[in-house]
Design brief:
Elements lengths: L8 H10 L7 E5 L3 H12 L6 H18 L6 E3 L7 E4 L8 E5 L12 E4 L14 H22 L18 E3 L18 H4 L7 H7 L12 E3 L8 H6 L6 E2 L5 E10 L5 E8 L4 E7 L15 E6 L5 E5 L3 E2 L3 E3 L4 E2 L5 E6 L4 E9 L5 E10 L14 H6 L3 H6 L8 E4 L2
Parallel strand pairs: 1-2, 1-3, 3-5, 7-9
Antiparallel strand pairs: 4-5, 4-20, 6-15, 8-9, 9-19, 10-18, 11-17, 11-19, 12-13, 12-18, 14-15, 14-16
The structure holds zinc ion.
């Protein structure tokens, strides 16, 4: 039976997605009990309590930082609750050491009203009592804003290993030199320290690509396509199938597509073809394969990623996304789900490149595959519709499409290094 992968689905799927976006939703900054938490912080740090004027300054600093961090997106931060929107709560408490917590890894922002928590009282470690009051306020503001931006980003689908996404990673392990800690989605386990938290950080380009898929944060969403029949399992079959195309983004100079795929049988192989131009780089990033964690007995994710050049030679592969303070790759024991990723694979030849998602033996389930490349005028190609029958297949209901998406219902907690 002919295996098909329908690039024709793009138009259909785009319309489904467009219905979920088109207008920016505000994000409610909930400062209920914030004064109490700052009082506890000041007492722990051994400094005078913050005045109401100083607290207003901290709030203004937080908003200024959040506006800057999310400047590439349609994000409006408000201090009155419109109801039913995303919330960042600065007044909750948690055991010492805990700094923040998010509801989920919600790539695409399927649930708008997720809650992000910042445990403000636990930021006493930011305060050096001998420093000038203004410095204390500046550093505390930056640390609170950074964690607020971080937890919100989890609720929009970002994970800690996205902090490594602007490096070139093609397999094995790499020394990062700490580069990941300049970014918002770094955390204690990636080596983010006090000084890093006191600095206005930003998103990696890779993170910006993922945020470009967040409903309510973008006027137009890039394409998400759904695997409706088992796609090519060999490079020869993928060569005969329609190419996957990438949409130019507005928030970052990359082009991207998201694929909702399925490992339908044990050891299933899904191979996608892209027509790429020499000079770009390609990132492939599996998200939330099979929903949560990985089965007992597996030390990696449920899938493996492999990239093949136009000669059919494998040039990059990943079993999982492990990290430590200074190492990223297959070996480090820390990670957040261990879904595999390869970052910025150099494309040295113009032609057909292939991305393979390979299921582990004995497991089946859905995955999301995010692909993105530098935006070059010739990177994207117009797909040739190969069969009108594909249109019929493409008219699946929005409900069926929704069920294929993976939202990881897993609290993300963050603590100091
Ligand atoms: Zn986190």
């Amino acid at each position: 039976m002919r295996r098909t992968f329908s690039a024709m689905l793009t138009a259909v799927t785009v319309c489904m997605v467009c219905s979920a976006t088109g207008q920016a939703a505000p994000i409610f900054l909930d400062y209920g009990d914030f004064d109490s938490r700052l009082g506890e912080l000041a007492a722990s740090a051994g400094i005078a309590a913050f005045t109401s004027s100083e607290i207003d300054t901290i709030k203004a600093n937080i908003k200024s930082d959040l506006d800057a961090i999310y400047a590439d997106f349609d994000a409006t931060f408000v201090e009155t609750d419109p109801g039913g929107v995303a919330v960042i709560d600065f007044g909750l408490t948690a055991a010492p050491g805990a700094l923040g917590e998010a509801d989920a890894i919600d790539f695409g922002n399927q649930v708008a009203a997720d809650l992000a928590r910042v445990f403000s009282a636990n930021f006493d470690f930011i305060i050096e009592s001998a420093e000038p009051r203004a410095t204390q306020i500046d550093e505390l503001s930056a640390a609170l804003a950074g964690t607020a931006a971080h937890e919100l980003a989890h609720n929009l689908g970002l994970r800690h290993h996205d902090a490594y996404g602007d490096l070139t990673y093609t397999g094995g392990d790499i020394a990062t030199g700490g580069a990941q800690n300049a970014y918002i989605i770094a955390t204690g386990s990636t080596g983010l320290n006090e000084t890093g938290r006191e600095t206005l950080r930003e998103f990696t380009d890779h993170s910006k690509v993922k945020l470009s898929f967040a409903a309510g944060f973008n006027a137009v969403l890039p394409t998400t396509i759904t695997e409706v029949a088992d796609v090519a399992s060999t490079i020869a079959a993928a060569t005969a199938a329609a190419a996957v195309t990438l949409d130019p983004l507005t928030a970052v100079a990359r082009s991207a597509v998201n694929i909702l795929g399925e490992i339908s049988t044990s050891g299933d192989s899904d191979i996608f073809r892209l027509e790429l131009t020499a000079g770009t780089t390609l990132t492939a990033d599996v998200n939330n394969d099979f929903g949560s964690g990985f089965p007992s007995g597996f030390s990696n994710g449920n899938t493996e990623l492999r990239i093949y050049n136009p000669s059919g030679v494998m040039v990059a592969s990943s079993l999982r996304s492990g990290y430590s303070a200074s190492t990223y790759g297959n070996t480090p024991a820390s990670g957040d789900g261990f879904d595999p990723a390869v970052y910025n694979v150099p494309i040295d030849t113009t032609g057909n490149w292939f991305v393979q998602v390979l299921g582990e033996s004995g497991v089946t389930g859905d995955y999301q595959l995010l692909l993105h490349a530098d935006t070059l005028t010739s990177t994207t190609v117009v797909p040739e519709p190969s069969s009108m029958a594909l249109l019929g297949i493409g008219l699946m209901s929005a409900g069926a499409w929704r069920r294929r998406r993976q939202r990881k219902e897993q609290n993300q907690t963050d603590s100091a290094a």
